[in-house]
Please model this.
Amino acid sequence: MKKIPLFKPYFRVDETLAEIKDCLENSWTGIGYKTEIFETEWKNYSSFKFAHFLNSATSGLHLALNIFKHHYSWKNNDEVITSPLTFISTNSVILQESLKPVFADIDDSLCLSSNSVESLITEKTKALIYVGIGGNTRNYRKIKEICKSRGIIFILDAAHMAGSKWKKTNKQVGIGADCAIFSFQAVKNCPSSDAGMICFKNEKLDSMARNMSWLGIDKTTYQRSKNNNYVWKYDVTSKGFKYHGNSINASMCLVSLRYLDEDNEIRRQKAALYDKFLDENHNLEIIRHDDDLYSSRHLYQIAVDKRDELIQYMASKGISLGVHYQLNSYFKIFKNFNNNSIPTAENYSSRIVSLPMSVSLTDDDVRLVAREICDFLKASK
Ligand SMILES: *Cc1c(COP(=O)(O)O)cnc(C)c1O
Model:
């Protein structure tokens, strides 16, 4: 039986090894060198003015809240409106900074609902984290506008969004956000082994991120050793973290970025095929991505009533499905913050399932997955 995995990262092996070889031959695998080259390449690709390469998007989300909290003198228990339907990274960092997560409801795109967001704003609301789930952007502009008009910091968790572009401008989604954070983790679009990018709108905050991601040290080792003249003296100007990325992962990202648009186009083609082969008459709802968007299509999601049985049935056929995500507000760490009514999120989180999606998925794989799903739903009616 052919196995079809949920995700399967695809790497251009020889090209990637050539970039890594440069690092090994130059005896430089750490921060600087390829990390600086990749930051430049990413800025050229995305049109972000500032970008700092990190060891993960989780680090980036934490760094963003830490820097905003310090810069704007937020107090403990100030509120951050956020999505309950996301990877735990988005929300655990709110607790790390002793801020209060306020879970808003979503709509049928699985993105935040602007009505729910508006109803939850208080004088303590300092920030909002929008998650572009699967690469999607529903209500993105509306919520960004609400934040702007109410003086709320708009943070984009763009972990799924590398290469999601507006059709109108062909520009990466996220320009204009106060901070956008991307993931280059192995199963995300633009894969490495583990890495992320933090893109602040404000230059001062970008330089704070550079300082804070390298333990608050005021010069990088790369800067200090650039002229064959290792400058040993430095100062530590804040209580930082070790969150910066390294040249090996930047090497992997450099190659993945070269093919990102091409790879995302393949993902969109597979998504269109799923749209064609899945029959919505069989008690199946397709989660749609917006029409004005070239979605990165990190995920292809549907909602069905017998979700758990479907996952088991498909596993018996060698096909792996996933759930993105369990409702974060049900996790024990959030038990004191789980008090808003979020019926749509509750409903979808019990019904959504992610279908196999990767660059190496074949058209026949898509046809097979869709057929098995329809067979199961027909039989279980
Ligand atoms: C993967 C993911 C993250 C974390 O990314 P890492 O680079 O693995 O830290 C954050 N948010 C969402 C929505 C994710 O899917």
The longest strand covers residues 125-131.
